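I am writing to request your help with a piece of structural work I have in hand. Thank you for your consideration; the sequence and its tokens are set out here:
=====
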Amino acid sequence: MFGFDDGLGPHLLAPTGSDLRRYGQEGTVFAGYHYDLNFLTIHGRSRFPGLNIWLKNGQKVEVKVPVGCLLIQTGKQIEWLTAGDCIAGMHEVIVTNRTIDAIKLATEQSRLLWRVSSTLFAHIASDAVLKPLGHFAESPLASKYPPIYAGEFVEQELAVINLKGNKE
């Protein structure tokens, strides 16, 4: 993972790779059902399918990112700024029957069987206050999103999922 701060936020580029020769069985989970805690998640096209998202109505959809395109998904920080009008996108990465078909084709073509994806996590600056903005501040749900520094919010979210490091 490569982190960088452009003065606006501590963004994170997180390329991941999974060896489908070893972990290419249908149902293998690479990233379980979750949302991202950042502002926006930008998914690049992966070499193999397996990313599923959930629509607002609860429908699960397998993502097919066209060549030259990106999938942009809302994170928890944008949910905070919109008082829940834009909900953080739920998603998972799992080996599906489409992944198995792609593995077979790649094997026939003597291509590497690594599922590689590059995801960019864009964050709000740590010293900025997250709170419902503009007309979202008048939402009946605004009280569920009290003001909090973005950095503190990230620390709280990381603690909930047991990823907060010790400051020792």
User: Anything to note?
Assistant: The mean pLDDT is 89.
